Amino acid sequence: MAAIAFSKLLSLAAIVTVARAQYWIFGGTPPIVTTRLDPVVFPNSIGGHVHSVVGASRFKEVYDPDDLVQSNCTTIPVQPDKSNYWAPQLYHRDQQTGQLTPIPTSFNIYYLQRPGPLNQPIKAFPKGLRMLAGDTERRSYNASSFADQAISFVCQDFSGAHDNDPDWAERPDFFDHNCPDGMRAEVFFPSCWDGVNLDSSDHKSHLSYPIQNFNSGDCPDSHPVHLVSLFYEMLVQVDQFDYWGPGTWVLANGDTSGYGHHGDFTNGWDVDLLQNALDNCPNANGNVMDCPVLAAVFDQASASACVLETDIVDEEIGFNAPLTILPGCNPLWNGTVAKPACPDPNAPTPALVPAQTPIPTGWTELGCIAEGTSGRALTGASTTSPNMTRAVCAGFCASRGFSLAGAEYSDECYCDNEMRNGATMDLVTWNECTNHCAGNINEICGGPQRLTFMIASNVASSATPSPA
Ligand SMILES: *[C@@H]1O[C@H](CO)[C@@H](O)[C@H](O)[C@H]1NC(C)=O
Ligand SMILES: *[C@@H]1O[C@H](CO)[C@@H](O)[C@H](O)[C@H]1NC(C)=O
Ligand SMILES: *[C@@H]1O[C@H](CO)[C@@H](O)[C@H](O)[C@H]1NC(C)=O
Ligand SMILES: *[C@@H]1O[C@H](CO)[C@@H](O)[C@H](O)[C@H]1NC(C)=O
């Protein structure tokens, strides 16, 4: 992952001379959720299309910066960054059946200092800032437009076999061939702010690209505050699927060209910490650890254990079985013809449901506990299931007459009426339970030698609070 990110940086850095080239990368960040929500463009409602969303655990249908910063955690290892970052999910379309399968995705998120000749000071994102780059409706490329230049695709082939092949060069739309080491869908955000508005009706006009270039330069008088430059690489594992021609790859908005790619951001940073990092990391060359104020709060364990606390849209998005049509009104559209009608115009609007399946009434989740020292903590009954969730485990234990339940290793469940083999109800740090449930990626079912521990509430608990 570091190699991918680094090679990209060299190409970006090569085209611009800057006084301060410090940057850091949150590399290989997994989504916190994939769902049809968009608190910037569709606040308080169901979104237009499915997004792959990275970052803080209180992402929801409306952006409230005071609420977002209260998130328990984020999939970004620097935990004081409670921002959310999102882009449309990319699907693979089967040539014979037309079925759509979501392609696994992770993000490299760059924070770059890109001033121009005036060397304007680089500012942190203000509290409450939200923004959108790219345009879901765009189906053409204007080479003179910075906004269009800011959206691009890179085909990864680490063998070097296509290094100087123009058909494999970075481009504004999808390739006409597969990418042996995955494809990057890239969004470069505008870095000049009007200094007043945290949003605007198009979610763009409160910001501007710099004067000289989309990815560096001085800010115009209309937007005089030079913010840190934000750049996403959404890495999609297109190499895991066959390529059969135009229409193989479909963005969640129905776009088969790639021109409609875009990215959204809602600020959840500790703004003072971000400014401190921008001011005091002169030697940062991509690695967060080269920035002392960020290294001090780097916490990969919490990032890995982080799951969504809020709601998702109650609809299939393709991870359980391929889709026949995309969620929302998103007909396949490459832009060379008029936009087709909705494939299912009478589809009811789905509801929001908790991302984590609630555990049965009468049960309480206490937290993460350690296995026994001389054997399993719970030995009364056990089961495994590809559908394992906390609710499935507690329900299984209840059905066998047990009052203690522990989910472990994603798909295992153990029951008992007392703690055995040296195990206790003392909670360990919450982020030691890191295994996403086999039956619901949005909740945790234990970890290595660790149980997500639940108890029927008529049982006296001697559990101690989790260390912070
Ligand atoms: C997450 O926050 C909720 C409150 O929103 C709290 O009840 C819960 O204990 C927290 N979980 C962790 C793991 O910190
Ligand atoms: C292309 O972009 C340039 C710069 O923003 C703009 O002046 C021009 O009108 C655009 N052309 C078209 C055809 O939209
Ligand atoms: C675009 O879509 C139209 C209508 O489906 C189709 O006829 C055309 O071949 C497509 N073009 C490309 C380049 O995919
Ligand atoms: C898992 O859930 C699926 C879909 O509800 C069901 O068909 C399957 O039988 C379940 N498997 C087990 C082992 O419970």
TrEMBL record:
Keywords: Signal. Residues 1-21 form the signal peptide. Residues 362-457 form the WSC domain. It holds the Pfam family WSC. Coiled coil: none annotated. This is WSC-domain-containing protein.
